[in-house]
Amino acid sequence: MNAFVARSLEEIRFWSRIMKEHSLFLKLGFRCEDTQLIQEANAFYALFEQIEAKAHAYQANTAPETIRQFNIEVYTAASHIWVFKRKVLGLILSCKLPGANNFPLLVDHTSREANYFRNRLAQLNNGQLEPLADAIIDENVFFLKIMADHAKFIGHLLDPSERKLVEQSREFSHDFDQLLWQAQDLSSMRPQSQTRPLLGQFLDQNRVSVASLRDFKKTARDLINACRIKSIIHPLLADHVYREAERFLAIIDMFENSLKGNAPLNQVAWH
Ligand SMILES: [Fe+2]
Ligand SMILES: [Fe+2]
User: Fold this and answer.
1) Within a 10 A sphere around the Cβ of 253, how many other Cβ atoms?
2) Of the bound ligands, which one is closest to the alpha carbon of residue 17?
3) Cβ atoms of residues 32 and 127 within 8 Å
4) Rounded distance from Cα 234 to ligand 2 centre (Å)
5) Domain residues of the chain, as ranges?
6) Does the structure show a pLDDT above 90 at 268?
7) What is the pLDDT of residues 69-101, one digit of tens each?
8) 240 Cα: distance to centroid of ligand 1 (angstroms)
9) What is the distance of C-alpha 94 from the center of its chain?
10) 1-128 with 130-271: one CATH topology?
11) Which fold has domain 1-128?
């Protein structure tokens, strides 16, 4: 099985669904009169739905050249949705959409995810994946910020009367802000910080918090689905952030296995 084909399809299957859902969340946050923006969001929904279907239709034995072309096509789509999200962020921040219902941080957050997806496709196509030690730090810096944001979104979209859950979200937000600072410290101490024991401890510590946030999101999702808590969280958003935590955990596990398997720190791995 071709690792390039397998990794590309796996990445696109996960992130195209995420991009499709972002289009829906953006659309739901616009006002009724924002018909142009709603149409643009619908077009992105359809585009990523189509990409997702295509990614599932391709098999692991598809010719690498076909996948290389597909990656370019998806890269373009991810670039376009990134531009759209940054445009929406600009409109919100210059008060051109008063009363619209998406937080600026949420729009920025979804644009960062689009940018991550786009970079990933470029790396896969150029064969320029990072050495293991750099990948461990960079992926964690990216995802810890994503997790810290999620905790803040949940805390702000729960009904204020859900005091216990709001409090728990605030604790997660604080925990992940701390972990993010630690990750940035480790990053600034590069390359001296890139020892096997330090990277191992870094992954251990992050995994504990991500697993606990993942469980919290799962509970929140189930409570929302059962209509047991008061919030303005879309059930699909609850599931969406849960899946992103699961993905981060899978990435941490993969890195831990590479470290335990004594994979060379300075060599590129198909992560
Ligand atoms: Fe997302
Ligand atoms: Fe996210």
Assistant:
1) 12
2) 1
3) no
4) 14
5) 1-128, 130-271
6) no
7) 999 999 999 999 999 999 999 999 999 999 999
8) 6
9) 26
10) yes
11) Ferritin (1.20.1260)
Q: What are phi and psi of 269, to 5 degrees?
A: -120, 155
Identity of the amino acid at 146: I
Give the phi and the psi of residue 118 in degrees, each rounded to 5.
-60, -45
**Whole-structure pTM over 0.90, yes or no?**
yes
* Residues lying with their CB under 5 A of ligand 2, a single-atom ion: 244
**Which of 158, 222, 152 has its CA nearest to residue 144?**
152
| Under 8 Å between Cβ of 114 and 81 | yes
The confidence score (pLDDT) of residue 267 equals 82
State the distance from the centre of ligand 1 to the C-alpha of 183, rounded, in angstroms: 21
Q: What dihedral do alpha carbons 119, 111, 96, 101 form, nearest 10°?
A: 170
Structural tokens at position 91: 């409109």
Cα of 110 from ligand 1 centre, angstroms: 5
**Cα 244 to ligand 2 centre (Å):** 6
**The predicted structure's pLDDT at residue 129:** 84
| Paired tokens of 150 | 């999620």
User: What are the Cα distances from residue 114, in Å, to 54, 92, 104, 139, 156?
Assistant: 19, 19, 15, 15, 23
Average pLDDT over residues 27-40: 98
In this prediction, residue 200 has a pLDDT band, given cuts at 50, 70 and 90, of very high
Q: What SS3 class is residue 268? A: strand
- The pLDDT value recorded for residue 196 is 96
Give the whole-angstrom CA distance, residue 176 versus residue 142.
12
Indicate which ligand has the atom closest to the C-alpha of 153: 2
Place 266 in a pLDDT band, splitting at 50, 70 and 90. Answer: confident
Does 1.20.1260.120 match the CATH number of domain 130-271? yes
260 phi/psi in degrees, rounded to 5: -65, -35
User: CB within 8 A of 52, min separation 6: which ones?
Assistant: 12, 13, 16, 17, 20
